[in-house]
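Why do we bother with holo predictions? Because pocket geometry can differ from the apo form. Keep that in mind while you read this record for hypoxanthine.
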Amino acid sequence: MLDDIQRELFTKEELAAIVSRIGREISWDYRGKNLLMVSVLKGSVVFMADLMRAVTEPLSIDFMVVSSYGKGVKTSGVVKIVLDLNIPLEEYDLLIVEDILDSGKTLSYLREVLEARNPKSIRICTLFDKPERREADVTPDYVGARIPDAFIVGYGLDYAGKYRNLPFVGVLKPEIYE
Ligand SMILES: O=P(O)(O)OC[C@H]1O[C@H](OP(=O)(O)OP(=O)(O)O)[C@H](O)[C@@H]1O
Ligand code: HPA
Ligand SMILES: [Mg+2]
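The structure, written out:
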């Protein structure tokens, strides 16, 4: 698995520092609110597990499973909700938790779908933002780090379902997917 990585982009320690910084920002901003963190699976599984423990205010969690990349490194353009939330959202301040904002198609679609359910407020938190590849208009409220246009894996992020268990984030060697 390690042989497939071209270079490490964020070490385990750097990721922990990023998560802790976002956790502090969220803790401050959501004082006295009714925070519901919605993790967009599968990619955000590791980030979500760490981030929720970096938030010091009371919160609830829930999960959606959304998929659009399949086995490729480019979005299929079709965002499929594989598993939806099944609770009313009116009483919650919703925070969508994503691993990466790339073309923006997943988050622009999700935001629209969830906004229509009338939560008290809605914000987006993404660990990584790849602004150069944006195709849909999305503005995240919390960003861990902006990254260059390269396909990254680890810390929840996959290529064809693999590499999610790497504790760091690295750039995948292009020969793996070309
Ligand atoms: O901004 P976009 O171009 O839409 O890309 C970002 C989305 O793509 C990935 O999900 P994927 O469809 O690979 O499912 P996964 O979370 O199970 O890996 C990633 O986890 C984000 O949800
Ligand atoms: O760079 C990426 N890596 C893994 N999954 C992704 N989904 C969108 N962009 C990426
Ligand atoms: Mg993926």
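Strands lie at 5-10, 35-41, 60-67, 80-83, 93-101, 121-129, 142-146, 152-153, 169-172.
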